[in-house]
């Protein structure tokens, strides 16, 4: 499990996106359904990228917080999972793009 400090940081990210990004995009003239579609795609993408590797990421975060002077090495499996799941989520989002209009 992540440390309480890491949990707080992650749990406020969607709220910050909702409060700041969505109204500013609406003020620029984008349609509300378009903004909500992109916002939900991004949240789903982050969930798909991080849920399968959450224990490894949590262990790295905890190790770094306990001893900040050491450098925690990247885990190759986690890095490749994030890269390929990001590419897959972006491809799926672009595939469904015409459904927004």
Task: Please give the largest β-sheet.
Answer: none
Helix % is: over 70%
Tell me, briefly, the overall form.
Answer: flat
Overall residue-averaged pLDDT value: 76
Q: Structural class of the helix and strand makeup?
A: mainly alpha
What share of the residues does DSSP label as strand, in percent? under 5%
Our measurement of the CA-to-CA distance between the termini, rounded to an integer number of angstroms, reads 41 Å
- Give a count of the beta strands, DSSP E runs of length 2 or more: 0
- What is the C-alpha radius of gyration, as a whole number of Å? 17 Å
Give helix and strand order, one letter per element, not per position: HHHHH
Low-confidence stretches: none
Commentary on this structure:
The model has no long low-confidence stretch (mean pLDDT 76). By secondary structure, the protein is mostly helical. It has helices at residues 4-11, 13-27, 32-50, 54-66, 76-95. It is flat, with a radius of gyration of 17 Å. Helix content is 74%, strand content 0%. Helix 2 (13-27) packs antiparallel against helix 3 and helix 3 (32-50) packs antiparallel against helix 5 (76-95).
